[in-house]
Amino acid sequence: MPVMEHLNACSTNLALPEVIEPGQPLIYRKWWPDVPVKKDRYGLSVPRDTEKVLINAVVIPMVGFDDQGYRLGYGSGYFDRTLAAMSTQTLTIGIAFEQQRIATTYPHSYDIPMDFIVTEKSIYFLSQRLHPLSIDECAHVSARSQS
Which of 43, 44, 62, 105 could form a disulfide with 71 if both were Cys (CB 3.0 to 4.6 A apart)? Predict the structure, then answer.
């Protein structure tokens, strides 16, 4: 929440995902601090009837990840379907603990590797394999990948 509040204070447009139908991509609804919320079909809080938005970056929780930047999710495939359905390339940032790193996730042809993975140990950038970045390198690589 502190990161989202900071980004909001920096005039970043933020959104939270909402499950509309099983087996379908997520939609994203505009979010701001103190936005009215409702519970979705899984009991998660989502903005109540705010504007649907198109996203250009997404932070995705992970159950596991490998050195090729692939992730294991929670098994429903919502993020995979959502990323595959997007018409433009979206910056993908996976969030995990270092102990969740595994040898391989056995990715399928439709799996999409993360551009960045953030753990308590490092920020990793995908360039064929995950590489740890310093804070300065992260800002440089992130700016380059956005252009």
Answer: 62
* Amino acid, res. 12: T
**Are 88 and 56 contacting, i.e. CB atoms less than 8 angstroms apart?**
yes
Q: Cα separation of 80 and 38, whole Å? A: 24
C-alpha dist (Å) from residue 85 to 12, 27, 57, 81? 23, 11, 14, 6
Q: Which residues contact 12 (CB under 8 A, 6 or more apart)?
A: none
131 backbone dihedrals φ, ψ, rounded to 5°: -125, 130
| Domains detected in the chain | 1-54 (no CATH), 56-73+82-147 (3.40.50.10420)
Q: How many residues does the chain have?
A: 147
Q: What angle do CA 114, 29, 118 make, to 5 degrees?
A: 25
Q: What is the pTM (predicted TM-score) of this model?
A: 0.86
Report the largest interatomic distance among the alpha carbons of the chain, rounded to a whole angstrom.
42
H/E element, 9: helix 2-9
